[in-house]
UniProtKB/TrEMBL annotation:
The chain crosses the membrane at residues 609-634. This is Negative regulator of reactive oxygen species-like. It comes from the Eukaryota. InterPro entries: Leu-rich_rpt (IPR001611), Leu-rich_rpt_typical-subtyp (IPR003591), LRR_5 (IPR026906), LRR_dom_sf (IPR032675), SLRP (IPR050333). Keywords: Leucine-rich repeat, Membrane, Repeat, Signal, Transmembrane, Transmembrane helix. SMART domains: LRR_TYP. Residues 1-17 form the signal peptide.
Length: 645
């Protein structure tokens, strides 16, 4: 009896558990999507327990009452909405996300805004691309006291005033990108104590005279017409970490708060640098003093300048691409930005990197104190006019890992030394360097031992016309180099020698004159090989020398023979990926005419070698006929001789 009771109890427990899980199971979120259905009105068959509803990309013009009490997220973007009934949102007491982007909300603003009075719990609102002005925006959000994020990009705002967000004190993120804003009145954002991210990109702002938004962590002012950026110089700590002033008309560095946490400064595509790094900064400070008419500051210029220098000390990344730098001071950089990790000076007018502060002659520079940028790992000097880099550059960069010198006129030093002169640069002995880009520098010969005592992992020599790599050019990289590119260099097998490299995984020799791969490639453990746009007629040499380890190969734009494609079958059987196989072609010659066909799909039946060369057949037949004639003649003569005997 006890056994039956225990069995019944176990069975009951299992069944109860199963029934309970079956009865109580519900999807965690009830969603419906009516996106791209060409709807002209809200569907009537909506589930009243919906939590997420997507009606975007339709043709809805009117919005009636939505009786969806559990709805939390509603997307009506990219419709033709121009009329919203007064109580349309009244039942949506749980809705915290509303997307009305790309509609016609600039119509019937007063009437439509009444519906928004019920959205006091809304946290995220997108009303971008509706041609709204400041007054219309104010009406739509006047009762959204819980609002945390608002997207207003692509509207028609021109002036921002303090009453715009008077009732929206919980705002954290505001996006004003791509409006026509030319003026921001004082007090517009100061009362928004939670505001962290502000995007004012692509507007018409000309200057920022008195920046004092302590609470911001990210500010985007790119693509305006800003000529100067000045912060209030007080003792408050600013939380700003990311400042984007790219694509403006800045002549000087921005004047940053004395106390800040700025990590990322974007100044690309401005007009900074014609006077040098430090002068650009000090001139900005002087401009600030003149504009604020602070005579006491002018008298204490020295101490203020020191405060200004300190404001840059925490920078990790600075982008100075496409400015007007002709010379760059390492000493100034060391003094201003000791914690810098990444520096972008590409597309300037740089001819050299100076050793010391501007305004000193070269003799004095050599006596300057040792400079150091102990954290700088990445420098981009692409598209300048640099021919050499002094040894002090590398001596002061103990952590340098990536150096981009594409599009300069760098010349490599010939001697086996690590000393750079004023006519060349030596990379020898730079042990921290891992990635070096020397594309398009006009290099014709990579001198012997050019990279000895380095630990390069990637080397890009593409675009150096008539490139010659001798037997010792890559000496020292056998155990470190993983990626090598010599594409677009007019190189050939006879001009390129690659030693055994035990770590080399990726090789790009595209857009050259290679017709085969020599045996020196046999000891390269390649997984990626780019052979595009060369003179290969077959890839038999690839099968012989490098196919064992390959995972990926590019082969298009070569002169393959349609009658010699056995190598393709072998590659396919080896499961080597060929991403551009459908772009590869082969050529077939018949009666002196050459035709091109898809390498993958051609159905040419190539004739035997004798049919291809009929003259061989005639030669063989002639030899046979001569042989038979000789045999017949010998037999006749033998017969006559026997008769005579």
């Amino acid at each position: 009896m006890a056994l039956y009771f225990i069995s019944f109890l176990v069975l009951f427990t299992l069944c109860a558990s199963l029934l309970s899980s079956t009865v109580t199971y519900k999807p965690s979120v009830l969603e419906q999507s009516w996106k791209n259905r060409n709807l002209s009105s809200i569907p009537v068959e909506l589930d009243h327990s919906l939590q997420v509803l997507d009606l975007s990309n339709n043709a809805i013009e009117h919005l009636n009452i939505l009786n969806l009490k559990t709805l939390e997220k509603l997307d009506l973007s990219y419709n033709r909405l121009n009329f919203i009934e007064k109580d349309a949102f009244k039942e949506l007491v749980h809705m915290d996300y509303l997307n009305l982007a790309m509609n016609l909300l600039d119509s019937n603003v007063i009437n439509n805004s009444k519906a928004f009075l019920n959205l006091y719990g809304l946290k995220q609102l997108d009303i971008s691309l509706n041609n709204l002005d400041s007054e219309a925006v104010g009406l739509y959000i006047q009762n959204a006291t819980a609002l945390e994020q608002i997207a207003l990009n692509g509207n028609s705002l021109t002036r921002l005033t303090p009453d715009l967000f008077a009732n929206n004190r919980n705002l954290v993120t505001i996006d004003f990108e791509n409006n026509n804003i030319f003026e921001i009145e004082e007090g517009t954002f100061e009362h928004l104590e939670k505001l962290s991210v502000l995007n004012l990109a692509r507007n018409n702002l000309v200057h920022v005279c008195d920046f004092q938004l302590y609470q911001l962590t990210s500010l985007n002012l790119s693509q305006n017409s800003i000529q100067f950026f000045l912060s209030q110089q007080n003792e408050n700590m600013y939380l700003l970490k990311n400042l984007d002033l790219g694509y403006n008309n800045l002549l000087y560095f921005p004047v940053l708060p004395k106390k800040n946490r700025l990590k990322y400064l974007h100044l690309q595509y401005n007009k900074i640098g014609a006077l040098g790094l430090e002068v650009s900064i000090s001139e900005a400070k002087l401009l600030h003093q003149n504009l604020t008419q602070d005579t006491e500051e002018i008298r204490n210029n020295t101490s203020d300048s020191k405060d200004l220098l300190k404001s840059l000390l925490k920078l990790r990344y600075i982008d100075l691409k496409a400015n007007d730098f002709r010379d760059f001071s390492l000493t100034s950089l060391s003094d201003l930005m000791q914690n810098l990790e990444m520096l972008n000076l590409s597309d300037n007018c740089l001819q050299k990197i100076s050793l010391g502060m501007l305004g000193k002659d070269n003799d004095n520079q050599t006596q300057a104190k040792p400079i150091s940028l102990p954290f700088l790992r990445h420098i981009n000097l692409q598209d300048n006019e640099i021919e050499y880099l002094p040894k002090v550059v590398f001596d002061s960069l103990p952590k340098l890992e990536m150096l981009i010198l594409k599009g300069n006129g760098v010349k490599l030093c010939l001697a086996k030394t690590n000393i750079s002169t004023d006519t060349c640069v030596s990379f020898r002995g730079i042990r921290s360097l891992k990635h070096l880009d020397l594309r398009e520098n006009g290099l014709e010969t990579i001198v012997p031992y050019a990279f000895i005592k380095t630990q390069l992992m990637s080397l890009d020599l593409a675009g150096n016309t008539n490139l010659f790599l001798g037997k010792r050019s890559l000496e020292g990289l056998q155990r470190s180099l993983k990626s090598l590119s010599i594409s677009n260099s007019n190189a050939s097998s006879s001009r390129v020698f690659i030693p055994c490299m035990t770590k080399l995984r990726s090789l790009n020799i595209s857009h050259n004159r290679f017709h085969n791969l020599s045996q020196s490639f046999r000891c390269l453990p390649l997984t990626v090989l780019d052979l595009r746009s060369n003179n290969f007629t077959s890839l038999d040499s690839v099968l012989t020398n490098v196919a064992v380890t390959l995972d990926l190969i590019y082969i298009s734009n070569n002169a393959y023979s349609c009658c010699n494609t056995r190598w393709l079958s072998v590659l396919n059987k080896s499961q080597i990926r060929i991403p551009d196989l459908d772009q590869a072609s082969c050529q077939y010659e018949s009666a002196g005419n050459i035709t091109f066909h898809s390498l993958l799909k051609h159905n040419i039946q190539c004739r035997s070698v004798f049919w291809i060369s009929p003259s061989i057949i005639w030669a063989v037949m002639l030899c046979v006929m001569i042989f038979l004639a000789v045999v017949a003649f010998v037999k006749i003569m033998y017969a006559k001789g026997s008769l005579i005997v």
